Amino acid sequence: MVLKVLSVYVEKCCGCRICELICAYQHFQQNNPKKAAIRVFPLFPIPASNVPIVCRQCAIPKCVEQCPEQALYTAEDGRVLLDAKKCTGCRACLDACPFSAIYFHSDMMTPIKCDLCDGDPACVKWCPTRALRFTPLAVVGQERRVKLAFAIGGKP
Amino acid sequence: MVQLKGGYVGKIGRINLSKNRVKTEMVDSAFAIKYVGGRGWGARIIWDEIPAHAEPLGPDNKLIIATGPLTGLLIPGAGKTSFSAMSPATGYYGDSNVGGMWGTELKQAGFDALILEGKSDKPTYLWIEDGEVELRSAEAYWGRGSLDTEIALKKDLGDELIRVASIGPAGENIVKFACVTCDYGRQAGRTGMGAVMGSKMVKALAVRGSLDIPVTDPKAMQSIFEESMRHILKHHALRIWQRQGTMQYIDWSQENICLPTRNFQFATYERYREINGDVTEKVNKVADKACFMCPICCGNFSIIKEEPHKGVGVDGPEYETASMIGSNCALPTFEDIIYANYLCDNLGLDTISAGNVAAFATECYERGIITKKDINGIELKFGNPQALFDFLKMMAERRGIGNLFAEGVKKASEKLGKESKRFAMHVKGLEISGYDVRAAPAMGLAYATCDIGAHHNRAWAISYDIQVGREKYDEDKVKRVIYLQHVRPLFDSLGTCRFQWLETELDLNFYARFYEAATGVRVTVDDLLLASERIYNLTRALSIREGLTSKEDWLPDRVFMGPVPEGAVKGATLDKDKFKKMIETYYGLRGWDQKGVPTSKKLEELNLKDVAEELSSLKTSTA
Fold first, then answer.
1. Which of A125, B80, B375, B450 is surrounded by the most beta carbons within 10 Å?
2. Using CA atoms, how far apart are residues B385 and B404, in angstroms rounded to an integer?
3. Does the CB of B147 have a partner CB in chain A at under 8 Å?
C-alpha cells in the first residue's frame, strides 16, 4: 500500500479558509470553521504569509505516545486515528503534538483531528491555490527539488 | 408567516454608547427577507430610527454594521459586511462594504448585525464573544494607528485569531473620509464610516465567535458549493486574478484612456508600467490575501524592497489606490504607492478619497490657489512623494491647512473659491473613484446617480461604454446602468463579493439557490433583484428626505469643459445637453419624477407604502 500524506505549501496559501469550512461540513455537516481539523494563521505584518496548521500524521506520533487511554492509534494505512469511545477529552494529545495540530471545541467532548477524509481529503480537493496536496510520501517536496535542480543544472 | 431556519443568525446587538447599555434584539423574519441584509438592513433601520436632518456626527446618527444572509457560509466569496449610516461626507445616506474575516466572526459570535447609537464620552472598544457584548476602555489605543491598534489588541487579548475592525487617528479626528479597517487591511473605505465611528468614540470592534451559523440544508449547500467551485476553478480568468487581482486594471485603464492622472486632467499616465499589475506580481508581492471563502484571492500583500521605507508592507495596493494615489497624484514608483497606502491604512484614511483630495490640493498649489506658506513649506507638486506623505499626515491630524482638506474636496473648494470648484472632482460630496468618464457617458451616469455619491462599485458601466461605443448616450446605456445598480449592490446585501459573478462568470442563479439552501426560503433571481431595487429606492428616499435635489445628480465641470488631452479619445468631453437628457431618461425608466423623486406609484409597487406616504407629506410641507 502506497502511503499518501497531506502536505502544505505555505507560500501558495492565500488564507481563504475554504479548507476549514469544508472540513467542518465534511465531518459534522455544520457551518462552523471552528470545528475544523485545520486552521489558517495569517501572519502580519512581517513575514506576511498564511500558514495552515494541520495534523501531519507523524510516523512516530507523540499524541499516540502520550494518550493515557490509548484512544489515539496508528492505523495500518499510516493514519493516526482517534477512537472516540475511549477518549476522555483530557487534551494530553494537544500538549504532546509539536504543532498543536489537534483542535477542541466547546460543543464537543473529544478532539477534532484530521482523518484525511478516508483517503480523499476535502480540503485538498477545494484548495483554490493548490497550497494543500495529498500525494505519495515519495513525491512530497519533489516540486521544490525539481525547481532547485533546474536552478543548479538547467541550461537552455 | 415565513419562518427562517438559517442563513441569518436572527439577532441584532444594539449598543447604546451614551447609556453604556447593550441589548440583544430578535430579528423579524419578514423584515429580514424584505431587506435581505447588509446595506438593505442598514437603509431600513436608518429610515425607521434616525430622525430627518440628524447631524451625521452627532449622537442621533447610528452606525449599522450588518452582515448578509450568506456571510460566513460555504459559498465562494462569502466574507462581506456593510457599514451604513448617514454620511458625514455627503450629508446623505452612506454605506461601505468590506471583506476579510470580520463579518464571519461576528455571525459566529451570534449576531447578524450591530447598531451603534448614541455617543460615548470616553474612548471605547467593544469586545464581542458568543452572544455577549462588552464595552471596554480604549484609552490605551486612542491616538494609535489602525494597524497598530489591531496588533496591540490581539496581543493584549492573547489571541491572534480574533478579528478586529478599527479606526485610526483620521477617524478619531473626524476626517470626513476616514475609513474602518478590518483584518489588517480590508477597508469599509467610503462615505466616512470611520468618522461616524470616531464621533461615537469607538476605537475598535474586537470579535471572537465559536457558534454554528445555522444552515437549513447543509447537504444542498455543500453540493451547490462544489458545483460553483468546479465552475470557478476552471475559469480562464482565475489565474490572473489570483496573481494580480485588481492591479491588472492599471493596464486596462491606460489602454482605454480612462486612468485618472494629475487630478483627472489626463487620462493616461506616462509611468503606468511602473505601477501596474506586473510590477505588483513580480517585484513587491510576497503573499496572496483572500477574504473568507474566496478562491479568487484578489488581494496582494506587498512589501517595500528599497530604502528609505524598506520592509514596510501593506495588504494592497488595489487598483483604486494605485490609480487615485498613484497616477492621480503622479507618484513615480510603485513603492511610493505602497508607502502612501500604508500611511492611509494606518492613519485610517480612505485611499480613494485621500488620493483624490491630495490631487485636488496639489492642483490648487500648482495653480497658486494655495501657497507654500499655507502648507507648512511643503512643495506639494505632482510627482513629489515626500510632499504627499506629509500632506496625508496633515489631513489625518487636521494640522494647518490639512484641517480644511480633511473636509473633502467639496467643502474645501467652497472655501477656496470659484476656480477650484471646476476641478473639485466629486459628486454629492463624495470624491470620484478611479475612472475618467469624459469619454464614457454610461460611467458618467453611474457616478452622477450613484446613491452614495461618486463611487464606481454600484455600476461599473465603463466596460459597457467601451463595448457598445463611447460616443453613445442612448436609452440602452441608461438601462444598463439601472440594471447594474440593482445587481451589484445586491451582493452587498447578501454578504458575498461580486467578483465571482463578475470576473469568473458564476451564474446569478447560484445565489438564489444558496439563499434557499441557507434560509429555507425559495427565491428567484428576479425576487432578489426586486429587493435590490427596493433598497435603491429606499436609499434615494433617505437622501431626498435630507434635501437632495436633482441638481446634485451631476458631474464636476472638468468632465464637460476640459477635453481629454491625449490618445484615441483626444478632445472628448461629456456633452451637457445629451447627458441631461440621459438623466431625464434615467428618472423616467426608474419611475421617478422629473425632479428625481421616486413616485408613490413606484414605491408602492416596491412595497414601500409607508415611505411613499412620508415622502409625499414632505413634498406638501415644503411646497
1. B80
2. 21
3. yes
